[in-house]
């Protein structure tokens, strides 16, 4: 008996049924419009979405979180430094003669330091120059870490040149030799009508109060300043903590305070925060920055102590400002990661909150359900009979009439 070869290939020009079906399916697919876009994630049409105030607030919070996470890095830590002292840098001019001023410091430990000889005092002529009032000065933009580090290494007109500093060091004596890094006094006048006070001193790293007062009106002194000579108008050229970097801008730099009263007190309240700057080139600078608020008070003789007071306090933490530069590719990867992570967490939180709200609403609604009454409502025929008789709530007699009408003898009554 002849049996065909099962493994025999078909002749050329002929195709097997599965191949024919495959070719037909491809031909049908080719007739359909080509695919222009493909999205593996399901989308919800705008007509099926509901806008709510909660969703709007969540969108704003998520956008703010994404913006903050993309900003430069700031890290906070507890100040674990073991330093006992802190350098204080002062440079200001007071519109009073130097012999009538006293410089003192009192700290939280209880020590009182008489610093009139620790700072350099030189007579001059009082000039405002480019100084502005502290209340009128505009808040400057916070500089970057690289700019602060570059300014710290840059010499400025406030610093003397090396040659002139060496000459001044050998030609002067006392406090001037210790503060030779400061610029020379402009319009120097011996025993002039104004006094420039400048220098750097080491103080204890605790809360303190540096005050400049007039002799005879602050601490006990054998000299009493004439009231007509008292004028505490002053210009602050430099006031900083830590290493002396005059090129770094501080909140009190070039600030001016004026007064016409003999008895006035200028108070500055400072909050010091140790700060470490690290730029993109891994250069590091350790210094201190501070925030300041000021208050001025004018009073009568015997009602207060006239002077200039700097009350400072140290925060128990340090700030590390790290500047990082990345390529566009790295920035995009970081941006996509931040947006995806924050948005996923926010969507999950919103879904959990909506589910919890639905469950709570369902539980509250279940407690308020009313048990239905077991009495049935009156039939439609009874309501029609009642309305026909003209009464909304029939009496017992009417009820019997209704039952007689709806009884078996209704046909006899109609025939009659």
UniProtKB/TrEMBL annotation:
Record's keyword annotation contains Transmembrane: yes
Keyword Chaperone in annotation: no
Start and end residues of each stretch annotated as Disordered: 1-23, 140-160, 372-416
One Pfam entry name: ERGIC_N
Ranges of Low complexity composition bias in the record: 372-388
Stretches assigned to the Endoplasmic reticulum vesicle transporter C-terminal domain: 193-347
Compartments where located: Membrane
Any GO CC annotation of this UniProt entry: Golgi membrane
Main location: membrane
The protein's name in its UniProt record: ER to Golgi transport-related protein
Species of provenance: Cutaneotrichosporon oleaginosum
Lineage summary: Eukaryota, Fungi, Dikarya, Basidiomycota, Agaricomycotina
């Amino acid at each position: 008996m002849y049996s065909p070869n099962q493994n025999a290939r078909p002749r050329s020009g002929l195709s097997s049924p599965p191949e024919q079906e495959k070719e037909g399916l491809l031909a049908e697919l080719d007739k359909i419009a080509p695919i222009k876009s493909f999205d593996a994630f399901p989308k919800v049409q705008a007509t099926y979405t509901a806008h709510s105030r909660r969703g709007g607030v969540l969108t704003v919070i998520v956008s703010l979180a994404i913006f903050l996470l993309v900003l430069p890095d700031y890290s906070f830590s507890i100040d674990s430094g073991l330093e006992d002292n802190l350098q204080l840098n002062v440079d200001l001019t007071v519109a009073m003669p130097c012999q009538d001023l006293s410089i003192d410091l009192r700290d939280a430990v209880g020590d009182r330091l008489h610093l009139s000889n620790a700072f350099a005092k030189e007579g001059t002529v009082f000039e405002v120059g480019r100084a502005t009032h502290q209340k009128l000065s505009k808040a400057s933009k916070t500089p970057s870490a690289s700019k602060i580090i570059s300014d710290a290494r840059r010499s400025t007109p406030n610093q003397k040149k090396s040659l002139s500093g060496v000459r001044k060091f050998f030609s002067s004596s006392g406090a001037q030799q210790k503060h030779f890094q400061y610029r020379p006094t402009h319009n120097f006048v011996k025993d002039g009508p104004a006094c420039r006070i400048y220098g750097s001193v080491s103080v204890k790293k605790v809360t303190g109060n540096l005050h400049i007062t007039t002799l005879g009106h602050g601490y006990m002194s054998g000299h009493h300043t004439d009231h007509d000579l008292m004028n505490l108008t002053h210009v602050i050229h430099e006031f900083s903590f830590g290493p002396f970097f005059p090129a770094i801008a501080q909140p009190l730099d070039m600030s001016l305070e004026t007064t016409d009263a003999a008895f006035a007190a200028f108070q500055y309240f400072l909050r010091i925060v140790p700060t470490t700057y690290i730029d993109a080139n891994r250069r590091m600078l350790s210094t201190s920055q501070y925030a300041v608020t000021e208050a001025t008070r004018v009073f009568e003789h015997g009602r207060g102590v006239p002077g200039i007071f700097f009350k400072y306090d140290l925060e128990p933490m340090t700030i590390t400002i790290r500047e990082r530069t990345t390529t566009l590719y790295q920035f995009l990867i970081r941006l996509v990661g931040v947006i995806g992570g924050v948005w996923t967490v926010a969507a999950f939180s919103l879904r959990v909150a909506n589910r919890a709200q639905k469950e709570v609403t369902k539980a509250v609604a279940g407690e308020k359900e009313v048990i239905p009454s077991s009495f049935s409502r009156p039939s439609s025929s009874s309501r029609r009979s009642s309305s026909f008789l003209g009464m909304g709530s029939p009496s017992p007699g009417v009820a019997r009439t209704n039952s007689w009408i709806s009884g078996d003898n209704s046909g006899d009554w109609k025939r009659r």
